[in-house]
């Protein structure tokens, strides 16, 4: 039974890694074109950014459970690089507020991912009972 739980955790982490990379690619593709070509969910831009970066942080922190601080630092760096690259697009202006929302999204996602990792570790760790 324990082996099944361990294999399930590995598959879950692999799926999370794939979701993380897909999300990262989507964020880059959605952030860099001119405003008129960007997808919109019909909600505030801050909410869109926050949700996207929460998903990004969550996925990568579940996929890489041993390095939550490194994952967070790399993803905040990614958010900063997206903001800098937006300076190259004609009708897009980078804002410090956008970077703050993205950074808080990453931190929130990594925190959620760390909590999920703790639960996965508890499921995959064998429990020994004392003999009576």
What's the layout of helices and strands?
Elements: H1 2-31, H2 45-63, H3 68-85, H4 96-124
Helix pairs in contact: 1-2, 1-4, 2-3, 2-4, 3-4
Descriptors:
132 residues, mainly alpha, 4 helices
Task: Walk me through what this model shows.
The model has no long low-confidence stretch (mean pLDDT 85). 73% of the residues lie in helices and 0% in strands. The relative contact order is 0.17. The chain has 132 residues and is mainly α. The longest helix is centred in the N-terminal third of the chain and has 30 residues, at 2-31. The chain has one domain (2-124). It has four helices and no strands.
How do you describe this structure in short?
Helices cover 73% and strands 0% of the residues. It is an all-alpha fold.
C-alpha-based Rg, rounded: 18 Å
Low-confidence segments? none
Helix content percent band: over 70%
Work out the strand percent. under 5%
- Secondary structure tally, helices: 4
Shape: elongated
β-strand number: 0
């Amino acid at each position: 039974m324990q082996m099944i739980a361990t294999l399930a955790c590995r598959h879950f982490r692999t799926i999370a890694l794939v979701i993380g990379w897909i999300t990262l690619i989507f964020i880059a593709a959605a952030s860099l074109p001119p405003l008129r070509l960007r997808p919109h969910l019909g909600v505030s831009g801050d909410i869109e950014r926050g949700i996207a970066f929460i998903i990004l942080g969550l996925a990568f922190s579940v996929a890489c459970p041993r390095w939550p601080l490194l994952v967070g630092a790399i993803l905040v760096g990614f958010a900063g690089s997206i903001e800098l690259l937006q300076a190259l697009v004609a009708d897009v202006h980078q804002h410090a507020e956008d970077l703050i929302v993205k950074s808080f999204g990453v931190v929130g996602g990594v925190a959620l991912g760390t909590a999920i990792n703790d639960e996965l570790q508890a499921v995959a760790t064998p429990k020994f009972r004392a003999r009576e």
